[in-house]
User: What shape does this take?
Amino acid sequence: MNVRRRRISGIAVTAAAALGLGTLSACAGDSSAAGNTDKFDVVASFYPMAFLAEQIGGDHVNVTSLTQPGQEPHDLEISAKQRAQLEETDAALFLKGLQPSVDEAIAQSGAKTKIDATTLTSLEEHGNEVGGHEDEHTEEEHGHDHATEGGQDPHIWLDPVKYAEVAEGVGKAFEKADPDNAADYKKNTEALVGKLGELNTKFETGLKDTKTKVFITTHAAFGYLAERYGLTEEAISGLDPESEPSAARVKELAETAEADGVSTVFYETLVSDRTAKTVAKDAHLKTDVLDPIEGITDKSRGDDYFQVMEANLKALQTAMGAK
Assistant: This one.
């Protein structure tokens, strides 16, 4: 299935690279340890899921990510070895619709507990309208739909409130699957949900009074975040990061930037900034990073989800003229 190509590949490399940095201590090792350990074994699809498993599971879990360093999550093809790991694991944690190969492998596996994060919160459609106009050819021509079945946006982890809802569901699933450690899972989940609540408050407060409510990004990943905090995301969507945007789209974004007082075009840590710079140059704007946190690498502005989200908040505050 080739519907997910280059537009997100850079972020994607992140997903896995994250797992070797020690932030997810149990994820850093050889994935062959996915099952049959003396701990509660969890196979996670990519970084945001692995982070939840680590935070909630603490010392009781052995977390393995299916997305390894250097791999693009969206194009991941599950190996025979990984299929075997799914047969052995105590739980599989994934985000249905983001990685088709993972969805298929988990559905066919005998994993004892299967946790689909999309069932733990509500999903919505974002990014179908690009810059206020629908482009029915965009996805097919540029080869990337980046949505679950039905066109729903999978980027729920970029909204701390939705991510907390997922965390609560994962915690309950862990408690049920591993009752001996249920009390610790409950305590860890409450602590994580509390931290996400604090993060939500920081975003609410930090973005309440800004000169503009519009931001431009190369990747339509921030729909939930924008909706949560009363912002408008203008994505240079459906464009390969290595290619130049159409003259019409550049003009449209320049007009939007002027009308709404936009100062910055955002791009991602590992995706080429060429598109962002093309748009920024034509519209006389600056560029900066807004990280969709599909993984953590040495180029990330932080060592884990919380640090990078706070870096994102600072970037938005600066770009949007927070008072």
Summary: The CA atoms of residues 193 and 289 lie 26 Å apart. The longest strand covers residues 40-44. The two ends are 46 Å apart (CA to CA).
